[in-house]
Amino acid sequence: MQTLEPGTTLRCVESGQPCVIRELLGEGGQGEVYRVDVGGEPRALKWYNDLVLRVDRGLQRRLQTAIDLGAPSAHFLWPQELVSDPARRRLGYVMRLRRPGTVKVQSLFTQEVRPSFRTVAHAGWQLADALLSLHARGLVYQDLNAGNVFIDPQRGTVEVCDNDNVDIDGAPSVMGGVMEYQAPEVVLRRSGPSRASDLHSLAVMLFRMLHAGHPLVGARELGHANLADLTVMRRLYGNDACFVFDPVDDGNRPLPDRHGPVLGHWAIYPQALRELFTRAFTAGLHDPGARVQESEWRRALRQLHDSVQTCPACGAQNFHDPARRAAGLQSHACWHCGGALPTAPLRLGLKRRGARAADPPDHVVVLEPGAVLHADQLGTTARPASAVVVRVLPGPLLCNEGSNAWTAWPGEQPCQVLPGESITASAGLRLAMGEVEGVVRR
């Protein structure tokens, strides 16, 4: 039930600025979220109910710690200031408003929205990057789940809300959390939330974003009548947790009639990504020290983003997988129409300037129209890390969307590619862009 009427004025605790209620945006078990004006600027207010304030004794301390430290990155709808009523009986905090066009990541799992593979890969990269920035501050999220992550299905940008969960890693915690995302040691109450349990939650989120199914829910669910029963959940996500594609134990394989999206998607992705998920949910399932790190997910998901290979027959997005070519395959079948796709599409291999010629590329970009490189991939610090500095156009052409000239060697003689100009991407082309060098190959 809405407890604050439009026009009600609250007060920001530290600055003393008025916080004027404009409209109710949503409500849940912890309270309500309102659109408000703070000093004439639009903001969102999370306003807690009495039960939360009575039960969660550490809430105000966590919020103040978060406010004092500041947002780890722009991905977070971070607490900016505490807000109270005139009698100081109730409490809330203001944050920036969620950007228009974003939807709960749950929409991907249910396939209500179906972004492109490239968009989902970018969103996964952003989520891993957000967790890395949080953990670098010595903080843990504690309760990463589908209810507190939003995605723009067109751009792949991610926003993480409910940051009142965040605390210092190792601090005593009463956080309950959503069990299907919790690490087994937290499910079984053998350990509290930690950076290591955040890593498990991240792996679950990424698997669900990419596969529209849960990595631990397969054939074994048939043995339980009620998957919402706490005892059943402790088995599925705790004592008896088993990866659906465990290479040793096949007792929890996805069933075609119940888990078809998981089976279909698993076959699409490159071998290197499947190996990372396998490690996350086998060695890393019960051993917190063996979990896949945020930086590994970032690298893998950026490579996935840059590996999109479009089927010329039907237009479906597939993925270039170097493992196929290493196995001697000349082509592979499009997952959608079965048409043949080459295992060696035109691609740009990148490595640090000054690296040895014999060194393999650090990163490979399939030169498909729509592919992009961001500023941080070229080591460019003058622009935001997420700014697009290279865009692949039909031809294919490489368009310089940055602010610095490139040096290119289409033959023996070098030439300049100025900002706004393009160059044809043909096999053998060499480029010097920012802090990296690139060679186009088949």
Fill in the keyword field for this structure.
3 domains, alpha+beta, Transferase(Phosphotransferase), domain 1, six-stranded antiparallel sheet, Phosphorylase Kinase, domain 1, Tumour Suppressor Smad4, single chain, six-stranded antiparallel barrel
At the fourth level of CATH, the homologous superfamily of the largest domain is: Transferase(Phosphotransferase) domain 1
* Strand order, sheet with most strands: 1-2-3-4-6-5
β-strand amount: 15-25%
CATH topology of the largest domain: Transferase(Phosphotransferase), domain 1
| Count of DSSP strands | 25
Main beta sheet strand tally, sense and closure: 6 strands, antiparallel, barrel
Separation of termini?
Answer: 62 Å
Residue-averaged pLDDT: 92
Helix share of residues? 25-40%
What would you call the shape?
A: globular
CATH class of the largest domain: Mainly Alpha
- SSE class: alpha+beta
Q: What does the radius of gyration come to? A: 24 Å
Stretches where pLDDT falls below 50 for ≥5 residues?
A: none
> What's the CATH architecture of the largest domain?
Orthogonal Bundle
Please work out how many helical segments DSSP would assign: 12
